[in-house]
Each structure stands twice: as C-alpha cells, then as structure tokens.
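Notes from hallway chat w/ T.B., transcribed later so I don't forget. T.B. wanted the structure written out for a chain they're using in a teaching module, and asked if we could keep both sequence and structure tokens in one place. Agreed to drop them here.
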Amino acid sequence: MESYGPVTGDAVPLELKRWPERRVPVAGVDLLVRDLPGAAPDLPPALFVHGLGGSSLNWTALGLMLNDTIRGIAPDLPGFGRTPLSGVIGISEQAAVLVELLEREFDQPVHVFGNSMGGASSVALAGLRPDLVASLTLVSPALPHPRVSASALWFTALATPRLGSVVLERTARMPFEQRFQASLKMVFGDPRSLAPEVRAAYEEELHRRDTDPWGRQATLDGARSILRSSLARPRRSLWADAAKVECPVLLIYGGKDRLVDARIRTKAQRTFPDARLLYLPHSGHVAQMEHPEEVARAFRQLIESNPTPD
C-alpha cells in the first residue's frame, strides 16, 4: 500500500494539503480528480499518477511545491481512492483511461508524474500516445526486473490465482495496528520520520480503504497486471516502450525501496533515450512523499534544461 501524504510534513501545513476535487466521466466511470490549487492557468499542464493501492493524495506535497511551475490534476484511478472499479484494470487499461482524461482536460502535451504501477502506466501512456506527453517523471516505476525483492514477493503472491484472494483475506484479518506498521515499513525508507499529524492522516486513509468494496479486486487486478508485464516478450514489454520515449525523462529511485530494486536504475537510464537520474539513498518507494523537496528540485532542473516551445 502507499501513503496519504508526505513524510516530512514541514514544507506545507497539513490543513492545506487537500486539493479541490471534482468528478470527471472517463471510460465509463466517474473519476475523482483533484486540481492543484494556487497554480496560474497559463502554466504548463501536469498529470500525477499514483501507484497500486495509492490515490491522488500521494501527490499533495510535491504538487504544492511545484504550483508556481505547473498546473496539474491528480486522479484516483478506477478501483483506488474514491473512484469505483470499472471492469478489470491493469497497466494497459490505466494508460487508456489516462489518454481519455488528458484528451478531455488539456489541449497540449502534459508533464506526467508516475509512481510505482502509475510509473509503468505512464510509460505505457507515452508509448501509446507520445503526442500527449511533454516529459516523464518516474518515481520507482514498476518496470520488469529480473530480481524480485522480498516485499515484492507479496505482490507476486497476490497475482497468483486463488492464492491472491487467500493472502488478502488473511491480511484483512490481521489487527489493524499490525497491518498499519507493516504498510509503513514496506513503503517508507524511515517510517520513524513521519510527523505525528501525517501519521494520523495516513492511519485515517488506511481505515477508509478498509470500507472500499472494490479495493480487494482492484489490488488483485493490479498485481496480476504487473506480473504479466514482467513476463511479456521483449518486443511487447514496457522496456520496448521505454526505448521509444522521445521526451525528457527523470528517473527517481530510493536506496531503501523494498518494492522496486533500485539497482534497475542503471538499465532504466540506459534504455530511455533522454533520461537523467536522481538516486536518493535514504528514500523508500515513494520519494515524492519522503523527499518532495529533492524531487521538485530535480523536476525544475529537467524542464529548465528542456524548455517547452511557445
């Protein structure tokens, strides 16, 4: 699972972190979409794509740090956050949803931010419709990896028919505090650095997820899609899409990521034709939340060195 807000909690007061929300009909479902507040309407547009088990709330701190540079939207993808599940949702289906959302919302290429499975879907989006993407910022993207981390084995179990449902049922029967602590340890590089108010907000969000009737199926669908992606033939893999991405790419990996092995960063930087790398040795799986200042700084440098034509 992924978290609610930033670990560092000192850059933006917690009460300012919720973005205005609205509903947008896309792909047969009303997506909950949050709009980055305080951004001028003439700024370049951006899209923030959360990962498996995450939501639009994963981008609150980073977005607010960048609202003088971009205007952006962050959706709850189908089956996550407050958007209900609509059919089977995997990486390719998420990419199709994002295409429809971008065509509806913007009339120019967009700076796309993606984390984890959302990073994989963002790569698929860029491969499917390169005309819609001005740049890619990928935080621990779930690209196929020959090495599987111990925590990632949990998602592999989820992707296995029948076993996945059993794993989720047993997990759901665990005491909430035990699940809460395990989630923190899995996602963050240093859970002890959580500010008390951010920890409370994360706990509130985890409680809310327990009430989502679609959450279990969406998690199973997502895990299965990631597994299928890792088994795809080279010509049809996300690495093939990555090799064709022409826009500037910022790759961000955490040295304490328990879900995506950061050693894949060398292959990733070599595969994307125009990529730069930010490696954060003390970050976990959600660097945009643990170290939003560093991520924001790296993004500004990316677009400063690759200005969008007027």
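Follow-up for T.B.: Residues 1-16 have pLDDT under 50 and may be disordered. Might be a good example for the class.
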